[in-house]
Amino acid sequence: MLQLNKVDVCYGSFKALSAVDMRVDEGELVVLLGANGAGKTTLFNAISGLLKPTAGEIRFRDKVMNGLKPSAVVGGGIVHCPEGRKLFPQMSVMKNLVMGAYVHRRDKEGIRRTLKDVLALFPILEEKKNEPAGSLSGGQQQMVAIGRALMSRPKLLMLDEPSLGLAPLVVKQMFETIQKINSLGTGVLLAEQNAFAALKIAHRAYVIENGKLVMEGDREAMMGNEAVRKAYIGA
Ligand code: ATP
């Protein structure tokens, strides 16, 4: 579904991504592991059209995506749920959710149905729908951010550090929800520091170090890999 071929991204003279080859197949849940500054956010920004690759090609469902505007990437079926959630804190939960459909959907009835599905996935948001998003707990705000992303009915959902700053119990529920979203048919690309929890729900994973993908494997291979365990799982 998503295919990156030898993608480079530079900030001025600094090469933040170097010859990145990766793929996410239809319906897959793929995890991207890497330390702070390894290049995860840069990679997501390149896929979502916020940064232009300086070399290489990004394809999605056989269409070349390089150079498309972020709104066209969303329209094409890829949505990026950024680190730090980026909600509109004064606006109600409901308005934040509906914003996710604005970029490319005009079908009111369809939007209403998707909203119903999102609220079924996150029942607490139904209760809080008229409250300002900024008044919610961190975990609930993350639900709004994911719910907003789902409002555009993506084929691929990219989640950048969704567990950041959340309490352990909330993190557990968050990963269960991500797995559920994937099992309902949405491909997921998940960047996480919380490697163990992320690998538990992954089909495959990549490791990125200093802007280069240095390892790839399925869940079992990654979980069993000594270097991965040492660097990212700590056991
Ligand atoms: P984190 O989890 O801390 O966000 P990351 O893996 O997402 O880390 P990136 O934010 O993609 O990493 O950063 C990759 C590299 O690019 C780092 O060395 C970072 O300092 C550098 N970098 C990121 N954004 C810029 C920018 N706007 N200008 C210059 N360098 C940048």
Descriptive account of the structure:
The protein is an alpha/beta fold and 235 residues long. The chain has a domain at 1-77 and 154-162 and 187-235: P-loop containing nucleotide triphosphate hydrolases (Rossmann fold, 3-Layer(aba) Sandwich). 40% of the residues lie in helices and 26% in strands. The chain has helices at 40-47, 70-76, 93-102, 108-121, 123-127, 138-150, 168-183, 195-201, 219-224, 226-233; strands at residues 2-11, 14-24, 29-33, 55-60, 63-64, 78-81, 156-160, 187-192, 204-209, 212-218.
Unreliable sequence segments: none
User: If strands are numbered along the chain, what order do they take across the biggest sheet?
Assistant: 6-7-8-3-9-10
- Name the average pLDDT: 92
Largest sheet: 6 strands, mixed
The kinds of small molecule bound in this structure are: adenosine-5'-triphosphate
Name of the CATH superfamily of one domain: P-loop containing nucleotide triphosphate hydrolases
Strand % is 25-35%
- Structural class estimated from helices and strands: alpha/beta
Distance between the termini: 34 Å
Radius of gyration: 17 Å
Question: How many strands?
Answer: 10
